Amino acid sequence: MRKFFDSNALWLSMLIGALGYKFFLPLKPTLPWWIFFMLFFTFCKVNPMDLRLHKWHGVVLALQLLFSVGVYYAMMAWTGNVVLSQGLLMCFIMPTATAAPIIAGKMGGSIQNLTTFTLLSNFATAIIVPATFPLIYPAADMSFWSAFLMILQRIAPLLLGPFCLAWLVRIAFQWRTKKEFVLPVKLAVVPFYLWVCSITVLTAVVTETTITNYKSQMTNILILLISSFFICLLQFGLGKLIGYYFPAPSKGRDYQDVLINPAAAPKTMAGVSSITAGQAFGQKNTSLGVWMANTFLDPLSSLGAAAYIIWQNLFNSLQLFVVAHKKSPENPSTNLGR
User: What is the distance in angstroms between the CA of the first residue and the CA of the last residue of the chain?
Assistant: First the structure.
């Protein structure tokens, strides 16, 4: 039963959130707390001393910015549709999801390397967005520093808060016991289940947003829904290629130790980096994306980020399903439910 749930949890949570969106909408204010504790338990698995910058981090970040600006100007030149152009821009410029290390860990990727990029990506977005959005959408008339501080205020508590708290727990444990801190196995799966719950609430919010704009924006909704599907596949696929050709050496016990990554199996570093970079490029912080679109751009452009939520979670669900059903006699830990 647990194996079935682990490999199908994401699409089931989306289905439940969509069908019962009226019931889950009141839980929207609790989303930051779900994410905070999800990240706290995830960061407890990571030794901050093992965080390093790697070549694929720079490549993914550069391509993210290049595609963001390129697709916006290309769509504006082709269609002149502001909502559509900005909606596709959001599909690329959104930073890496805070939950990405959880999914990567379950597939045998490097939690350490992806945690590093998640921090880098989100804080880079806090700089890139205020610098570029006023240029492409004059209605976003606030100053760079005002926009920067608004975004930083949005993401810093949810990233630095649990990161610093987890680091303090690690330091306190090591000071008291003189042993290295290791998150108990029973708690290692908690971030995944917290993420599943947050997906249910987030899907409910997206469903309500789509229904509200259904009649007036039907054409844009359909185009963004289809386009975001191909953008999602492109970013996951391209990320996997980048990770494969720019493998990162792992520090610490981040890809073979089942205490860190329950689904990890011995792999080449190219294979580990391929999984990690794929999640870094493809799995987006969609809740931040929806907020940025509503705050700085035409609010209807948030439909791009909303549509992306569907595809990235279906893709992640498929990946988890494949990993869960891989049979490996030499390494039983590849079964997610065990």
Answer: 11
What are the tens digits of pLDDT across the range 139-179?
A: 556 677 777 888 888 777 877 888 889 889 988 988 888 88
Q: Give the whole-angstrom CA distance, residue 336 versus residue 262.
A: 7
Give CA–CA dist 61/109, Å, rounded.
Answer: 18
Q: What is the pTM of this model?
A: 0.82
CA 57 – CA 93 distance, rounded (Å): 15
Q: Identify the structural domains of the chain with CATH numbers, from first to last.
A: 2-334 (1.20.1530.20)
92-112 confidence digits (pLDDT tens): 999 998 889 888 888 888 888
Q: Which amino acid is at 133?
A: F
Return the C-alpha torsion angle 123, 247, 8, 303, nearest 10: 40
Q: What is the mean pLDDT of residues 286-311?
A: 85
Q: How many CA atoms lie within 13 A of 111 on its CB side?
A: 31
Q: Which residues contact 16 (CB under 8 A, 6 or more apart)?
A: 200, 203
Whole-angstrom distance, CA of residue 321 vs CA of residue 83: 35
> In whole angstroms, what is the distance from residue 180 CA to residue 195 CA?
27
* DSSP characters over 184-198: -HHHHTHHHHHHHHH
